[in-house]
Design goal:
By secondary structure, this protein is an alpha/beta fold. It is built from 15 helices and eleven strands. The strands form two sheets. The protein has an eight-stranded mixed β-sheet with strand order 4-6-5-10-11-9-7-8, sandwiched between helices. Bound molecules: glutamine (GLN). It holds the Pfam family Amidase.
């Protein structure tokens, strides 16, 4: 069952071959057996899943009727703990559903639980979770990537056919790459941020993981679209991404940015990317080299802007209204400082301090304003590139999944891990990671980037590749 595509699963429900309840039980059983070795979930919602599944049948409306799904624990879920993997929200039960959760429920999906992640989505390895790290199903000694590591590992291990995620600087594409699944980060504004706990609001974007681009197309069609409750959500029709997949990339112009293939890209990973690019040529695409000269500014730009926004967004966690509150505060200042000191982990505290610093009087122009200017230059690189090419292809990471603990004490090397994913986030363009092979026994992802609102082009390019290759169907040993 868990090797079928989403289209096949939905068809099996529609034809009465299976029932939403049977599908739900199949995946709940896998979660029961396989979750202990992965730690991919923070919360299971088996009882609620049964109630929802029992209310669905082959007649149910909704494009995804009966499809089991997992939600990243950054999305508010009514009546269900929503922790953002932080001690700060360990006791928080959301009073409402995020728009993404609401839409996917309306489409007939059955939520099985909430996935583990880096605390407040800050991290690239999932080691910054209050609930402990997630393990990579391809090798349990390695990280799954982050911050949406639980969602990526769960889909890779067949704990659910699809999972939601968020990507602020790579948190969908990077774990998708490291776990060997397909992940798409839509254009900034394509998916509502309402009820998605804010990290860096000018960058945060919801998206999804599944095994294939075609599967992602089904899920994205159901979750995307204008939402009056998110002021940056864009009023623009959402195509039926799945229906639009032609699998044809003949004549498509694909640009390879020289800056993404420079020093730092490990040789075996590079060989995988080169082979994937050749596959596109064999499918009739035209491949050209391009320049994106401001790429090397992305890490420093992002690690000013994202912490700045985080320091402001996280000010709301004060120990007063909701979330963690310290015991027996002496006075108001003690209440704030101890609640925040106890509630936030080390990386979150580091980001808040960096953010407060770059926004402070005297440093604001030198850091924050400067970063806004370099962000514009990075966006212009994309604008210019897309005057000549239809798509950009690149690696997602410099190397496959690193070992747990390997970078945990070195924040800068962790930040540098994001070099290939940050530029698209800063520009707001959509991006995807597609499984493209293996290096050192671990998955390698191909990154595809498209112009603003061309998610359909991305998904189609991924689909074309996946019709010609079978990397996306591989399952890690022990998770068959
Ligand atoms: N790794 C990046 C960070 O730590 C991106 C995280 C994300 O996209 N949420 O901020």
């Amino acid at each position: 069952m868990h090797d079928r595509s989403i289209a096949e699963l939905i068809a099996a429900v529609r034809s009465g071959e299976t029932t939403p309840r049977a599908l739900t039980d199949h995946y709940l059983d896998r979660i029961e057996r396989l979750q202990p070795s992965l730690n991919a979930l923070i919360t299971r919602t088996a009882e609620a899943a049964h109630a929802v599944a029992d209310g669905l049948d082959e007649q149910s409306p909704g494009a995804l009727a009966g499809l089991p799904i997992l939600h990243k624990d950054i999305f508010c879920t009514k009546g269900v703990k929503t922790s953002c993997a932080s001690r700060m929200l360990d006791n928080f039960v959301a009073p409402y559903d995020a728009t993404v959760v609401e839409r996917l429920a309306a489409a007939g999906t059955v939520m099985l639980g909430k996935t583990n992640m880096d605390e407040f989505a800050m991290g690239s390895s999932n080691e910054n979770s209050f609930y402990g790290p997630v393990k990579n199903p391809w090798n349990l000694a390695h990280v799954p990537g982050g911050s949406s590591g639980g969602s990526a590992a769960a889909v890779a291990a067949g704990l659910a056919p699809a999972a939601t995620g968020t990507d602020t600087g790579g948190s969908i594409r990077q774990p998708a790459a490291l776990c060997g699944v397909t992940g798409i980060k839509p254009t900034y504004g394509r998916v509502s941020r309402y009820g998605m706990i804010a990290f860096a609001s000018s960058l945060d974007q919801g998206g999804c993981f599944a095994r294939s681009a075609a599967d992602c197309a089904h899920v994205l069609s159901a979750m995307a679209g204008f939402d009056p409750r998110d002021s940056t959500s864009v009023e623009r029709d959402v195509p039926d991404y799945a229906a639009a997949l032609s699998g044809d990339v003949a004549g498509l112009r694909i640009g390879l940015p020289r800056e993404y293939f420079a020093d730092g890209l490990e040789a075996d990973s590079r060989a995988v990317i080169d082979a994937a690019v050749k596959q596109y040529e064999a499918l009739g695409a035209e491949v050209v080299d391009i320049d994106m000269p401001h790429t090397d500014l992305a890490v420093s730009t992002y690690y000013v802007i994202a912490p700045a926004e985080a320091s402001s967004n996280l000010a709301r966690f004060d120990g007063v209204r909701y979330g963690h509150r310290c015991d027996a505060p002496r006075d108001l200042e003690d209440l704030y400082t101890r609640s925040r000191g106890e509630g936030f982990g080390a990386e979150v505290q580091r980001r808040i301090m960096i953010g407060a610093y770059v926004l402070s009087a005297g440093y604001y122009d030198a850091y924050y304003i400067k970063a806004q200017k370099t962000r514009r230059l990075i966006a212009q690189d994309f604008q210019r590139a897309f005057e000549h090419v239809d798509l950009i292809a690149a690696p997602v990471t410099q190397a496959p999944a690193f070992k747990l603990g390997e970078k945990a004490d070195d924040p800068v090397s962790m930040y540098l891990n994001d070099v290939y994913t940050l530029p698209a986030s800063l520009a707001g363009v959509p991006g995807m990671s597609v499984p493209a092979g293996f290096a050192h026994g671990l998955p390698v992802g191909l990154q595809l980037l498209a112009p603003w609102f061309e998610e359909g082009r991305l998904l189609n390019a991924g689909h074309a590749y996946q019709q010609a290759t079978d990397w996306h169907t591989a399952r890690p040993a022990g998770f068959e």
